[in-house]
């Protein structure tokens, strides 16, 4: 073999132009087999410019929300009578539909988050999964390297309770035992999810389930966080696992980065710390109505139709998120 041939990996001949979304997704095939979770940090990350991430229908009230203690995590699932919330733009080549939300925590306030940020772990982490719409279900999407994206919100410690978590934790008393569920809300997902269109980390890695199944996932870790009081985190620790014992910790072991890319998407805010400070005021929703809802207002749930009649901000929501100033304490 000639020296030049030995120095050039075979896959580089198929490498898309650097800086394109195709180049970003190319790494799912090369690095997707590496394990997760990992430590993320501005230091050592690769800045990458993407279109703005767009959030559709996150202000729409679901028909119902179910809260389940699976024995391994607290799972939130919702159903809408018409179109579900979804993401477009950002690092996505196609529409990704909201699937489910679940939580990770530890036995004390010094542990609990799946990911570490700047080599530090936090009390908890909320995972929000999305799947590529053309695969129709998350179960099918998991079998494709471009099928599922997980947005991972770090949960910091806060002296006061986070109201975004309060309405979810209200149902915990009814799901203490494993494999039990209850109804909560329903409230729009914008009442729980901090939405963002810039300033987040992205990497590819494998998700290993409790059934020893492995799937390639696109992981997004936003710099925007949730927070929780000691009392709120203790609520998670009251849940029982499948062996009738308290489920005190369900976060996964930290894995080596292994030389993979960690992309820092659309850096904007001050970069002295990889996570942004907790906001002093609630952040405004940047969700917009999808074309289907704009064209067919009859599709709106009764709660949203009432808000629209009162001059709610749906029309304002049609404006580009870039025209809004997110109120953060930087």
UniProtKB/TrEMBL annotation:
InterPro entries xrefs: CA_dom (IPR001148), CA_dom_sf (IPR036398), Carbonic_anhydrase_a-class (IPR023561)
Q: List, alphabetically, the GO terms of the cellular component aspect.
A: cytoplasm
What GO molecular functions are on record for this protein? Answer: carbonate dehydratase activity; zinc ion binding
Which CDD domains does the record associate with it?
Answer: alpha_CA (cd00326)
Please give the family membership noted in the entry: Belongs to the alpha-carbonic anhydrase family.
The record ties this protein, via PANTHER family, to: CARBONIC ANHYDRASE, CARBONIC ANHYDRASE 14
Q: What is this protein called?
A: Alpha-carbonic anhydrase domain-containing protein
Q: Which gene encodes it?
A: HaOG207030
């Amino acid at each position: 073999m000639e020296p030049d041939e030995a120095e050039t990996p075979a896959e580089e001949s198929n490498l898309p132009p650097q800086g394109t979304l195709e180049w970003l997704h190319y790494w799912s095939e090369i690095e997707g087999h590496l394990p997760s979770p990992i430590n993320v940090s501005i230091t050592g990350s690769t800045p990458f410019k993407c279109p703005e991430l767009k959030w559709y229908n996150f202000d729409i009230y679901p028909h119902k929300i179910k809260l389940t203690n699976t024995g391994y995590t607290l799972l939130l699932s919702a159903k809408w009578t018409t179109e579900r919330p979804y993401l477009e733009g950002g690092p996505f080549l196609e529409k990704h539909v909201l699937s489910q939300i679940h939580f990770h925590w530890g036995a004390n306030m010094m542990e609990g988050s799946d990911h570490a940020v700047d080599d530090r772990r936090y009390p908890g982490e909320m995972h929000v999964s999305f799947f590529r719409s053309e695969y129709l279900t998350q179960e099918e999407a998991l079998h494709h390297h471009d099928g599922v994206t997980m947005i991972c919100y770090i949960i910091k410690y806060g002296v006061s309770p986070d109201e975004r978590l309060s309405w979810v934790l209200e149902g915990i008393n009814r799901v203490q035992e494993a494999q039990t569920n209850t109804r909560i809300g329903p409230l729009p997902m914008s009442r729980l999810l901090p939405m963002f269109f810039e300033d987040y980390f992205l990497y590819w890695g494998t998700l290993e389930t409790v059934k020893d199944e492995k799937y390639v996932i696109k992981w997004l870790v936003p710099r925007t966080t949730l927070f929780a009081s000691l009392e709120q985190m203790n609520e998670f620790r009251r849940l029982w696992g499948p062996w009738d014992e308290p489920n005190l910790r369900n976060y996964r072991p930290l894995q080596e980065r292994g030389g993979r890319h960690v992309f820092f998407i659309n850096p904007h805010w001050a970069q002295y710390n990889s996570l942004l400070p907790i906001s002093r005021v609630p952040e405004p929703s940047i969700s917009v109505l999808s074309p289907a809802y704009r064209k067919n207002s009859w599709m709106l749930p009764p709660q949203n139709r009432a808000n629209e009649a009162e001059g709610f901000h749906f029309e304002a929501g049609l404006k580009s998120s870039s025209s809004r100033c997110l109120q953060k304490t930087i």
